[in-house]
Amino acid sequence: MSTVLTRIEDWNAVAASLGRDCVLGLVPTMGSLHEGHGALLEEARRRCSVVVASIFVNPIQFDQRSDYDRYARTLEDDVAFCKARGVDYVFEPSEREMYPERQRTFVEVEELSQHLCGAHRPGHFRGVATVVLKLFHIFQPHFALFGEKDYQQLSIVKRLVRDLNLRLEVVGVATVRESDGLAMSSRNRRLSSRERLLAPRLHQALMAARELVAGGETCPAAIRERALAILAGVPEIRPEYFDLVDAEGLQPVRVVDAPVRAAAAVWIGNTRLIDNVLCVPPAITKPQGK
Amino acid sequence: MSTVLTRIEDWNAVAASLGRDCVLGLVPTMGSLHEGHGALLEEARRRCSVVVASIFVNPIQFDQRSDYDRYARTLEDDVAFCKARGVDYVFEPSEREMYPERQRTFVEVEELSQHLCGAHRPGHFRGVATVVLKLFHIFQPHFALFGEKDYQQLSIVKRLVRDLNLRLEVVGVATVRESDGLAMSSRNRRLSSRERLLAPRLHQALMAARELVAGGETCPAAIRERALAILAGVPEIRPEYFDLVDAEGLQPVRVVDAPVRAAAAVWIGNTRLIDNVLCVPPAITKPQGK
Question: Is residue A289 domain-resident?
């Protein structure tokens, strides 16, 4: 049974009753839950004695109000989803509960927010980092779980935790995909049936980059060109970015001589989708002398 | 007996041994301790079962490297000072311990950092807020104590704690002054004997503002002019700012119809001094009908 909490003070009462040996896992979400979140909840369940899922569509991370308004809200389904996965507490606060007064304090993770989505969504990661830090303070979890689909977000939260001396472990969980490769996302349900058929091209483009790197291609521009060719010629798809970045600092690489992350965003009709894959050069795949 | 700790992991070992009913007080300082810090430590001692004083000259809050280099470091005296006041632990980390890699994550408190010192020391309060948040995460204190002399800093830390849902109480402690009114400050020891004689003028100017407000003057420009006249005519003193701001948001007021903070910074020779006082209009000093 999951208990639904809407007030921070309700959680405080729960927290006061938890034993000192409790291991707390937090899965911060914006609701509209799917199997990608399911994997986060299951990993949390494996590691922790108490699992909290938060459901909060965070207004300060939306650069466009229309995107915030259109963001799917499916609370009843989400609570049922959490119950089915053995979540102990669902935290579903109002905007007023999270922001009782106008937020003046913001957290920024420089450099890591500079490229990829950060370059196209001004203030987005500032809003994410700020709400995540608020949730960390409210729940004081031992583990916080985030999906690798939002790789930049995951990297930023990991860096925030290290830079600010927070006492918790950030766990990244592998992207869950549909059978045709499309990464699970709340935004997928906005796609028309034709758009849904086209959407796996994003993953195909990334996998092409992965194969090129595995085959020894080291030039990012060449890889990018070949990957973008997969997205070209389909008027419904407009690539926003396609980049190869180093896995830690998320800076575009000049030459692929170490594992990199290929990350991309595309617009399909009015829906923006993101995805990323790890690309490993052959020298690292097969260490020499073995 | 105060125990000196230089590593975060040393503190972690101490923290693990503290009972659940321990009430922890943190007094963050940059060392060079004086009776102003003494008042903070005594207030911490009154409220808490365990008192930690941190001594760390925080490089990321200095807008000028020369100011950082010149900042007085008197560690042996500081430890003796803490011992004499019953501090339990002195935390005195290296720069490497606090910043093992280049800091990428920064906390900013908008609006409250905009005026007063914030307008003249770019990045200063960002550096303060960031290191204070790191210390809060390291120590997880129940109380953190800051002096009212640094009123803008105190206001920013209070707001940060509220905005980020931190579970601790920020306590402001009244400014401690020399007998001639000069606010205690580590920077006072840089003053030449002639500068030291002139320094109380800063407090006199603020007290003049306080008296004008108490006498019914409501025009900030008029108050400012009269206060600045006290600083004028002394070539060694160069005012940096003199403002009347609302006590919460630290925005300059247009009319003094509620309690305000008069705050000022002056340069005396090569030394920058700040101070502030509360100014209360007469209608509030003597409520009508009483």
Answer: no
Query: Per-residue pLDDT for A152 more than 70?
Result: yes
CA atoms within 13 A on the CB side of B241: 17
**Joined tokens for residue A231:** 């997205």
Q: What is the DSSP letter of B270?
A: T
For residue A19, the chain B residue with the least C-alpha distance is B20
Q: Are residues A157 and A243 in the same domain?
A: no
Does the residue A286 lie in any domain?
no
Q: Which of A20, A96, A102, A105 to mutate to test the interface with B (most CBs of B within 10 A)?
A: A105
The pTM assigned to this predicted structure is 0.96
Please state the domain count of chain A: 2
Whether B288 is in a domain gets the answer: no
- Domain co-membership, A107 together with A31: yes
Q: Are residues A63 and A152 in the same domain?
A: yes
Same domain, B126 and B59: yes
**A16-62 residue pLDDT tens:** 999 889 999 999 999 999 999 999 999 999 999 999 999 999 999 99
* Adjacency order of strands within the sheet including A260-268: A237-246, A260-268, A271-279
Tell me which residue range forms the domain holding B217: 186-283
How near does any CA of chain A get to the CA of B145, in Å? 20
ipTM for this prediction:
0.95
Give the distance from residue A127's alpha carbon to the nearest chain B alpha carbon, in angstroms. 12
**Taking CB atoms and an 8 Å cut-off, how many pairs form between chains A and B?**
67
Each residue's pLDDT tens digit, B239-248: 999 999 999 9
B117 and B167 both lie in a single domain: yes
Residue type, A136: F
B37 among known catalytic residues: yes
CB B202 within 8 A of CB B231: yes
Is the confidence at residue B210, as pLDDT, over 50? yes
The DSSP annotation for A22-41 comes to --EEEEEE-S---HHHHHHH
Catalytic hit among A37, A115, A124, A203: A37
Is residue A110 domain-shared with residue A222, that is, in the same domain?
Answer: no
pLDDT at B64: 86
Alpha carbon of A22: minimum distance to chain B alpha carbons (Å): 15
